[in-house]
Design goal:
The chain has one domain. Helix content is about 25%, strand content about 20%. It contains three helices and four strands; from the N terminus they run βββαααβ. A four-stranded antiparallel β-sheet has the order 3-2-1-4, with helices on one face. The longest helix has 11 residues, at about 50-60.
């Protein structure tokens, strides 16, 4: 299982996991989360499964398929795997949300994608 920390304004508020089967699950850290990441994932509920989490992850990535393909080539991952893309570029998401390696997980160096 792969794990990413989800940060909001620099504070960890949730954990995102990808199972061996490729499904995603997000759970809030109820001690830290004060604002929901999405209205579809309210505080006090969860953990949230892939049907709710996947559209949220897709929204953090560029819409253009050609951009995602370039990112996938550059990072050596499938452009159709939002977790893999965010694992490599999640510190550079638009807005106040960032995704990064959870404590003890391998860290990937940021790269410029053209």
């Amino acid at each position: 299982m792969n794990t990413l920390a989800v940060l909001l304004d620099g504070d960890q508020v949730a954990t995102l996991e990808q199972t061996r089967g490729g499904q995603h699950e997000l759970a809030y850290d109820n001690r830290a989360a004060r604002t929901p990441l999405s209205l579809s994932m309210p505080l006090g509920a969860g953990p949230f499964r892939h049907r709710v989490v996947d559209p949220y992850l897709e929204g953090l990535l560029p819409e253009r398929e050609s951009t995602r393909e370039a990112m996938g080539r550059s990072f050596g991952v499938s452009p159709r795997n939002p977790f893999a893309l965010l694992q490599r570029m999640g510190l550079d998401c638009a807005g106040a949300v960032q995704l990064c390696a959870a404590a003890g997980a391998p860290v990937h160096n940021l790269e410029t994608v053209q």
